[in-house]
Design brief:
- This protein is an alpha+beta fold.
- The protein has two domains: 1-82 and 276-301, no CATH class; 117-270, no CATH class.
- Helices cover 67% and strands 7% of the residues.
- A five-stranded mixed beta sheet has the order 1-2-4-3-5.
- Residues 113-192 form the Peptidase M48 domain.
């Protein structure tokens, strides 16, 4: 019973923490740390929410969550008899866990299919350019620059974008898209997209997804700044925004018009770095969240 209560408290703390985190002002100063903290909150919330129900469900075994589930799966007889509340808790916990896993797998499969279809399409309508090795050029007058993530990742730019941008600006945009590919930001977004499918009515989940989308763009901007001038990248983003960039295909990562100005302001006038004590404090919090829920699943209080 103590384990179930502890997991319920942790789930509530993660929900309240996520609500507060959507209003945090420090995240643009440390986007990678903020992404890690969002991931920790999401994982801890999912495990704690389902774990609280399952911990109560397997209480008759007096073994803890994971050992109790193993005993239940083996058909072992519990130490105390089952009652209706424990049965309902088992049904609710297993159902919630199954839904979370199912939406994650569904989102992943749909993204893989969309990328496969898009690669097939690019093979027909895009071409290579010796001046830009490793980049596929799309014969389209609209401005577009995005990446196709995956094991066979590709960076794509349209003819319209090449005409719109200067050589330095184009190099900055390509460095940004290459950063998405290297850091596998598609995998960062996947759980949040899946959680949005599971909880479409939740404003906190919608805000979290939107914030993570912005944070991965900022993280890619930071990596691109190692190879180009921040102002070149900022002017390229402004040109995309004013020209009305093409929508990024489903399952790809590219320029989003709704977050351009936040990124431009950050590139032109970067804020001070987050203090080391604050950074380590948030890092410790994230690691604690990631370890607390699995520990409570394994060990009984």
């Amino acid at each position: 019973m103590i384990t179930a209560a502890a997991l319920a408290v942790l789930a509530t703390a993660c929900a309240l923490g996520s609500w507060r985190f959507t209003r945090a002002g420090w995240t643009p100063r440390a986007p990678r740390l903020a992404i890690f903290l969002w991931q920790s909150l999401g994982v801890a919330w999912g495990l704690a929410t389902t774990g609280a129900m399952l911990a109560y469900a397997v209480q008759p075994y007096d073994l803890g969550v994971l050992p109790g589930l193993i005993a239940f799966a083996r058909g072992e007889t519990p130490a105390t008899p089952w009652d209706a509340l424990h049965v309902l808790a088992m049904i609710a916990g297993v159902t919630a866990l199954a839904v979370l896993v199912a939406v994650l797998l569904t989102a992943g499969v749909q993204a893989l299919r969309a990328r496969h279809r898009h690669r097939t399409l690019l093979a027909l309508i895009a071409h290579d350019d010796p001046a830009m090795p490793g980049v596929r050029v799309l014969d389209h007058p609209g401005a577009a620059a995005y990446c196709v993530p995956g094991l066979r990742s590709q960076v794509v730019v349209s003819e319209g974008a090449r005409r719109l941008l200067s050589q330095d600006e184009l190099a900055a945009v390509l460095a940004h898209e290459a950063a998405h590919v290297r850091e596998r930001h598609d995998l960062v977004l996947l759980p949040f997209a899946a959680l949005r499918r599971a909880l479409p009515w939740s404003k906190v989940v919608a805000d979290a997804q939107a914030q993570v989308e912005l944070l991965i763009e900022m993280a890619a901007d930071d990596r691109a700044r190692r190879y180009c001038s921040p102002r070149r990248l900022a002017t390229a983003l402004l040109r995309f925004g004013s020209a009305g960039a093409m929508p990024t295909p489903h399952g790809m990562l590219g320029v989003h018009a709704h977050n351009v100005m936040a990124r431009v302001n950050r590139l032109v006038k970067p804020g001070p770095e987050l203090a080391a004590t604050v950074r380590y404090g948030y890092l410790t919090l994230a690691v604690t969240l990631l370890t607390a829920a699995p520990t409570l699943w394994v060990y009984q209080l």
